[in-house]
Amino acid sequence: MRFIAVLLGLVLLAGCSAPAPSAPAPPTPPGSVAAESSQPAGLAHSVPTVLDIPKIEAHSTLVQLGLNSDDTIEVPPVSTPLQAGWYSYSPTPGEIGPAIILGHVDGGGQKGIFYRLKELLPGDQISVSRQDGSTAWFAVTKVDQISKSEFSADDVYGDTAAPELRLITCGGSFDRAAHSYRDNIIVYAALVG
Q1: Could you tell me which of 136, 150, 184, 191 has the fewest CB atoms within 10 Å of its CB?
Q2: Of 130, 121, 142, the residue nearest 54 (C-alpha)
Q3: CA distances (Å), 99 to each of 136, 150, 168, 177, 180, in order?
Q4: Nearest residue to 55 (alpha-carbon basis) of 141, 113, 116, 105
């Protein structure tokens, strides 16, 4: 029960333009769940290398993100706000389950890779190039802006029956006292090819 309470209190740092207290990492996803017959079958494991979102002119190589020594999730360095990162304890993009990619909204006085993330709409295309030479294509299904205090780990990191993608950054107003944005922007997308 305590574990669930900690997860429900999760506050992500992705996209924050100033240092802030770290937050608990999402759980490491368990094994794959069988895909439903009407959804694309999952791709084999292959580390993602490049993210492209044409509508918002976002293009970034992907660094691998893990856990900090205090078991909080790493985020790309705020000093390089145009760098996105893949959370390596999530499925690789195209595998069954939710692949997690984090990026900054801004940092160091400049716009971040996910500065325009909130502009995405259902149907917009996202591609992720993979180390095996393949490209996983996703279509946006939903975009949420939620208060960090209402962040739902189950909705974002919970198992899915098909290959999905989550793009996460900060948004909303900036809390100067906490040195952090008050909200998260979360893009949900499903594999389409």
Answers
A1: 150
A2: 121
A3: 11, 21, 11, 32, 24
A4: 116
pLDDT interval class at 178 (50, 70, 90) = confident
- Provide the total of helices (H) and of strands (E) in the chain, helices listed first: 2, 10
At residue 170, the pLDDT reads: 94
pLDDT: is 11 or 181 the higher one?
181
Q: Are strands 180-191 and 163-175 parallel, antiparallel or unpaired?
A: antiparallel
**Domain holding 76: CATH number?**
2.40.260.10
Q: Structural domain tally of the chain?
A: 1
The percentage of residues in the chain with a pLDDT greater than 70, rounded to a whole number, is: 79
Question: Per the confidence metrics, is the pTM higher than 0.70?
Answer: yes
Distance of CA 153 to the CA centre of its chain: 12
Give CA separation, 17 vs 21, 145, 147, 153, 165, in Å. 13, 17, 17, 22, 24
Report residue 15's pLDDT band, with 50, 70 and 90 as the boundaries: very low
Q: Where are the beta strands (DSSP E) in the chain?
A: 48-53, 58-65, 84-87, 97-102, 106-107, 110-111, 125-130, 135-147, 163-175, 180-191
